Amino acid sequence: TDMVFENHRATTGYLLPDLTIIFDVDPQVGLERSLKRLANAQSTEDRFENYDLAFHNRVQEANLAYNLSPKVIIDANQSLEDVEEQLRECLSDFLAENLESVSENED
Q1: Which residues, other chains included, contact 35 with Cβ-Cβ below 8 Å and sequence gap of 6+?
Q2: Would you say 60 and 16 are in contact if contact means Cβ atoms under 8 Å apart?
Q3: Model confidence over 58-101: pLDDT tens digits?
């Protein structure tokens, strides 16, 4: 996490997002989805997919450990419709909370 923060600081100068949304999916499921998408698109751009499962597990762990800004983790193992619904709820709640605080600060 320290390395992530230092890289982030070096590239953005402490600029942090108001919210980070992480779509968490089992790495094996994510790879299968990605390979299917690449096959459907007849794409050979599969560098990322060629890494072993251990690599993808480490990426998942690093993403879940991210703590530089408020985060919401959405279970992306669900159907696309369920993921979309969770995302809508997340964004709706976030915007409602933040629009309220903006209104309060303007008064």
Answers
A1: 46, 49
A2: no
A3: 999 988 988 878 899 999 999 999 999 999 999 999 999 888 76
Residue 21 CB: number of other CB atoms within 10 A? Answer: 15
User: What whole-number distance in Å separates Cα of residue 23 and Cα of residue 77?
Assistant: 9
Rounded CA-CA distance 21/75 in Å is 11
Partners of residue 57 on adjacent β-strands: none
Query: What are 30-39's contacts with CB under 8 Å, separation 24+?
Result: 30/56, 30/76, 31/56
Lowest mean pLDDT among 12-16, 28-32, 62-66, 72-76: 12-16
Which residue reads 């903006």 in tokens? 102
